[in-house]
Amino acid sequence: MVSLGVALIRNDLQIGRLTGREQAIWRKMEPSIATLVDEDRPLGAAALISDSGLFVASRAAVRGESMTARLKSGRNVQMTVLARDGSTGLVLLQAAPWVAGQARPFVAPNAPEQPGVTLLAILGTGPIRAQCVSTRHYGVIGKARRFVPLTEFRFEAPAELIGAALVVCEDGEIVGSLNATLRRQENQTQQGLGQQAFVSQEKIPPVLRGLPGLAQQSTYGPGELTVAYTVGSEVVRQVINGFLSPDHKVNLPSLGLICKDNIGGGAIVEFVAPGSSADRAGIRVGDIIQDIAGQTIRDQVTFARVMLNQRVGAKIAIRTSRGNIVQIRDAVVGRAEDETLP
Fold first, then answer.
1. Is 273 exposed, middle or buried (0-12, 13-18, 19+ CB in 10 A)?
2. What is the Cα–Cα distance from 279 to 309, expressed in whole angstroms?
3. Domains of the chain as residue ranges with CATH
4. Number of C-alpha atoms within 13 angstroms, CB side, residue 4?
């Protein structure tokens, strides 16, 4: 993955603040971007991912099941919702009418962004420059409390403007849609920008907990500094590949359980969904997961990392303990959408 990316907006004033190289990159990307509008008011950007007219957008920019979008040519198309993903906040849209061959599709990310990388963020008002800060954070998403990796970005823009932004790289990889933000001036996490993303307080540095350190991180520029997050590229890749499949279904791996850090090591099970993969394998609340598919589980973070690398439908061995009893259980990895969690 190369060093430059873009978070999507449209506005001549915004574009004018970019470097010449950044503007050239944006001009190449622009034919592959559609602006979602409501009575000519821009709501956000949608990025082409298939020459058949499939686009993805942040769910914060999508109104209902069908809406109008404007292409670079000025022509309007109708966008119809085909699928939604709760973990990334991405929505799959079908454009009609659509003529194949008029734009180059974006692709799923191959690898995480590297800290220090400069990107651009594009909202409904034009592209702005952003910077990748870290890929080491984790957060809990939605009612299912899905533990996912997060990528942290910083850029100069008010937090209320970025909720529907997409983030893409210079080489045409979609990084994700911006979710939770933290504003330097207010030192507090902003929720509700397209999806609930609750950052784990135990796994991130004080700067992201609203402590004084953030105000000192002002070398990035003189304007208002906003910190924002996307779900990690590993998840985004699986979601986009699922959207591109014939049934448009996302195959995020899941065992159908919720766990937390165990004081003595491992991850202790807090909830098991009835009929889930974990339930069928005999895993129960209070069991401590120590190993999955030969990989040691030290805590909730390593549980999430290991599970992200599993394949839906694969048979895996899970080592659990309860008191002095250690058991090896065979399980079949399920789909996150099929596992009912509270």
1. buried
2. 21
3. 1-30+106-250 (no CATH), 253-338 (2.30.42.10)
4. 14
**What's the 3-state SS for 49-82?**
EECCCEEEEEHHHCCCCEEEEECCCCCEEEEEEE
pLDDT digits (tens, 9 = 90+) for 188-198: 333 333 333 33
* Contact assessment for residue 11 and residue 125, using Cβ atoms and an 8 Å cutoff: yes
CA distance 228 to 162: 9
Give me the residues of the chain with pLDDT under 70, please.
1-14, 16, 116, 118, 142-145, 157-163, 179-224, 338-342
CA angle 104, 109, 113 (to 5 degrees): 125
Distance CA 69, CA 231 (A): 25
96: nearest Cα among 74, 123, 75 = 75
Tell me, what amino acid is at 191?
Q
The full 3-state SS of 228-267, as one line of letters, equals: EEEECHHHHHHHHHHHHCCCCCCCCEECCEEEEECCCCCE
Q: pLDDT tens, 171-187?
A: 888 988 875 555 433 33
Q: Please name the residue that has the structure tokens 């499949």.
A: 245
Q: Torsion angle, CA of 326/288/331/242, rounded to 10 degrees?
A: -160
